[in-house]
Write a structure and sequence with these properties.
This protein has 309 residues and is an alpha/beta fold. The protein is built from seven helices and twelve strands. It is globular.
Length: 309
């Protein structure tokens, strides 16, 4: 049950379309592609300036040249756990700490995908086994695994990262990836996390380029508990126009984009966020609906009476 809704201070700055309805708008749907697969990877505790332009993150910076780099992207809270919830469900659930365990029953991205016949799974590195509900084990931390908290999701969506398929056609519609406390840069260096990302997801990025699929890379929060909370966020895939993008976004905007992409009713504060619509290649957008022209009524046929002699 939701215990609180905390709107990001950056939500008011989101431009253009502010949507308050409980369902995807047809206008937004026409502005978004629908990738065959989307993989969302969440790294830890580094600000935008510590990643973008940092020589210790050569792979991430190579992704910057391949995709859209958001120069005004922000987390919504401190510390980590509320941000993971925001990115998956659309609220921080009132949390202001990294406590564990928690259970919620609110609609979320995963339950929305399953309800409309699509698929979802979350893959956590170093989790002991599929369906694990413990708060931690070695380098695994449940606080970085939002999907395990939701009772409306089956335990089968909570999977170890070893299950991440090498045959990418077997990926779910949307997959979230939570690296362990070293690989996500929480306990280890930027260089370590960058190398992990390239070794584990580099082949997926290459495959996605020719298979209508998308990588979203983001961070939970910045490193110093700042009020601006600026983080790196990248979208990489064949449907994305490469380049820096100055649109102000936050975790709610990323979630809203995913929900609208796949026809999922927006959840929590994502209902107030604008989907990201200005980075897409036009060739990947759905065609605009044709105007329905009412059929013309056939002319009335007149008959002339014939007199019989």
């Amino acid at each position: 049950m939701t215990t609180g809704h905390r709107r990001s201070p950056f939500a008011a700055a989101l431009p253009a379309l502010l949507l308050a309805s409980g369902a995807p708008s047809s206008a937004a749907a026409q502005s978004l592609p629908r990738p065959d697969h989307t993989v969302v990877v969440i790294l830890e505790n580094h600000s935008y300036s510590e990643i973008i332009g940092n020589n210790s993150a050569p792979y991430i910076n190579s992704l910057r040249t391949q995709g859209a780099n958001f120069t005004d992207s922000h987390a919504v809270s401190h510390p980590s756990e509320p941000n993971y919830l925001a990115l998956f469900q659309g609220t921080t659930e009132g949390l202001s700490d990294d406590s564990c365990p928690h259970e919620y029953s609110d609609p979320n991205l995963g339950s929305g995908l399953l309800a409309n016949g699509q698929t979802f799974a979350g893959f956590s590195e170093s989790m002991p086994y599929d369906g694990y509900t413990g708060c931690g084990s070695g380098d695994y931390a449940r606080k970085h695994n939002a999907w395990v908290d939701f009772t409306d999701l089956p335990s089968t969506v909570n999977r170890v990262f070893a299950d991440f398929p090498s045959d990418y056609t077997r990926l779910p519609t949307v997959a979230y990836v939570a690296p362990n406390l070293c690989s996500d840069m929480h306990d280890c260096s930027v260089a370590t996390g960058d190398a992990w990302l390239e070794s584990r997801l580099g082949d997926y990025v290459s495959w996605a380029a020719t298979h209508n699929s998308l990588l979203i890379l983001t961070f939970d929060e910045d490193a110093n508990d700042t009020s601006t909370n600026q983080i790196a966020t990248l979208f990489v895939g064949p449907m994305v126009q490469p380049g820096d993008d100055s649109t102000p976004i936050d975790h709610y905007a990323v979630l809203r984009t995913l929900e609208d992409m796949y026809g999922v009713p927006p959840t929590g504060n994502a209902t107030l966020a604008a989907p990201i619509t200005d980075i897409w290649q036009s060739a990947f957008l759905p065609p605009a609906p044709r105007a329905q022209i009412p059929p013309t009524k056939p002319p009335t046929r007149r008959t002339t009476a014939v007199r019989r002699p």
